[in-house]
């Protein structure tokens, strides 16, 4: 018997208090008394040898140890809940995929109907966040990550090459009539703070050494940056692959000649090697890579992608 596992009632009490920031509200949710919740949390703190909460006049605050513990535990509890629901509902062949939010919304979602038609026996569960999945918790089968690959011990497969270039709405282009990259320094620029290619990288590649003094808008994901550009609020420096839907619909256009782009590989399929042995995982891998390798129209013809 594994003695390193904490008692489940204590874990549930801790998670509820952390989420609701209240012992009373956690007690109501779990149909217990506040005293019972307090007892369970104390039991867990004794088990861990660490204090998880601090009570003050402002309410309940998590300690640093509590916040770090919640980050690890909440995913494990979600995985347990999902697995239990699947068994109760008779769901088989479930596939758990995690992705970055913008990729999930702008690239993956428009294609999922095709996967469902091709593999009707697979029940797909998709979650999205910037935080990478912890495979040790058994949360997901596959993770679609964005960034510079440095994930030892995992299989890492690049999905496609992307072209990063300035994109703007037709109305914005008509209003500002920018002709050269240097003119961008006097135009409202939109920054995606998580992008592997920043404005300084692109401008330097175009021979513009002067730094950007300020950004009109800053966002922590590509989807919001693209939405702002569609509304004519500025110029977004984004992937023509991820922005394909906006480009196809004419909501966005490349600001300059499409040869003025930076090519990167920034989206990756990541998973433990053993996961590929699952039939559902292998099916999704083959399908996703076929989608990623399908011929893509260049942004010069107004499509910007598949």
From TrEMBL:
PROSITE patterns: HTH_LYSR (PS50931)
Domain HTH lysR-type: 6-63
Keywords, ordered alphabetically: DNA-binding, Transcription, Transcription regulation
Matching InterPro entries: LysR-type_TF_proteobact-type, LysR_HTH_N, LysR_subst-bd, WH-like_DNA-bd_sf, WH_DNA-bd_sf
CDD domains: PBP2_GcdR_TrpI_HvrB_AmpR_like
PANTHER family reported for this sequence: HTH-TYPE TRANSCRIPTIONAL REGULATOR, TRANSCRIPTIONAL REGULATOR-RELATED
Protein name according to UniProt: LysR substrate-binding domain-containing protein
